[in-house]
Amino acid sequence: MENFAFRPADPEARPGQQITVVNKDSAAHTVTATDGDAFDTGSISGGDSGTFTAPSEAGRYAFVCTFHPNMTGTLIVR
């Protein structure tokens, strides 16, 4: 997360993989699946990192920062 954007916006992961995200902004962000159940980092303060587990099923999972809805992306699980 940098400059109020996810980088990369469409990351790839293996099923069940642990994913660590780093917030390079000063504002807090989240990485929250839009379906509400697949994954959610909770609030990650500026300069901190958070970890979540990719879903166990292959697919495309849209996500958003709940604080900044213009920040969106898609996790691709293969």
Automatic annotation (TrEMBL):
Pfam families, per database record: Cupredoxin_1
Ranges for domain EfeO-type cupredoxin-like: 3-77
Top-level division of the source organism's lineage: Bacteria
Gene3D superfamilies assigned to the protein according to its UniProt record, in alphabetical order: Cupredoxins - blue copper proteins (2.60.40.420)
Entries under InterPro entries matching the protein: Cupredoxin, EfeO_Cupredoxin, ET_Amicyanin
Family annotation (PANTHER family): BLL1555 PROTEIN (PTHR36507:SF1)
Protein's name in the database: Blue (Type 1) copper domain-containing protein
Annotated organism of origin: Streptomyces zinciresistens K42
Species lineage: Bacteria, Bacillati, Actinomycetota, Actinomycetes, Kitasatosporales
